[in-house]
Amino acid sequence: MPLATLLIVWQLIASDDSPSFPPPVEWFRAIARMYDEGVLLPAIGQTLTTFVVALALAAFIGATVGIAIGASPRIDRTLSPTVDFLAAVPGAAFVPVAVLILGTSLVSGVAVVALVVSWPILLNTATAMRAVPAVRLDMSRTLGLTIGERWRKVVLPTLAPGIMLGVRVAASMALIITLLVDILGAGEGIGRLLVENQQKFDARAVWSLLLIVGTVGYLTSATLARVAAQLTRPTDYGSATAGRRFHPLTQIRTKP
Question: What is the pLDDT of residues 193-234, one digit of tens each?
Fold first, then answer.
């Protein structure tokens, strides 16, 4: 792995007393020190709570509003100018204003992150909603599917790839905005520890915290990629239906 190779080379050539680029083994010593001091786990817990809850809330808000915009031309015409303007503003620019208005509590941090990162989910969902083939909806009506069955068998499977793409983009943004909320709003998460150790010129602690943040980001991306693959894979009906086909809308068994 390139990252593992880089860390090994870094360990071999770095000096233990380097003020800026300490060897990786020193990072883990810094992690152990912060753990013993009782500051690491609360900071990780605060950051993860804000990150996960805000991402889930952003997914709900973005998907709901995106479906409404994509399904209704009137809502699209009404909201699109505002949505396009707000989506064009860098997410980090909202953080100081949001912190000023909402404060620095855990609830306000979740609200800030969710509102800032909901845009990619909203835009991708709206685009996917507009792309739902009309012929599928017409066919589902002809076959007598109820509204609930139409959404479950036609609309949601079509929207899933777009929503998951938006969630994956939002996840990377959410981690950044969560750290910014800590830094700019004097929060209690990893961002605060980063600033404190940077001000003390403790490079070992700073690099160790970056390692933790990178690990969280990597695991989140890998998890969402697996979820997206599960949601978009073809349905496997099992050996009991071997040699037979199912209609994609009604799952009515037909002869080969």
Answer: 999 999 888 888 999 999 999 999 999 999 998 888 887 665
| SS3 state at 152 | helix
119-178 pLDDT tens trace: 899 999 998 888 877 777 777 777 777 777 777 777 888 888 889 999 999 998 999 999
SS3 194: helix
Kindly report the pTM of this predicted structure: 0.80
Q: How far apart are CA 203 and CA 188, in angstroms?
A: 20
Which residue in 158, 161, 153 sits closest to 252, CA to CA? 153
Query: Number of folded domains in the chain?
Result: 1
In a domain, 29, yes or no: no
CATH for 181: 1.10.3720.10
* 136 occurs within a structural domain: yes
How many helices and strands (H and E) does the chain possess? Answer: 11, 2
Nearest partner of 125 among 57, 66, 56, judged by Cα? 66
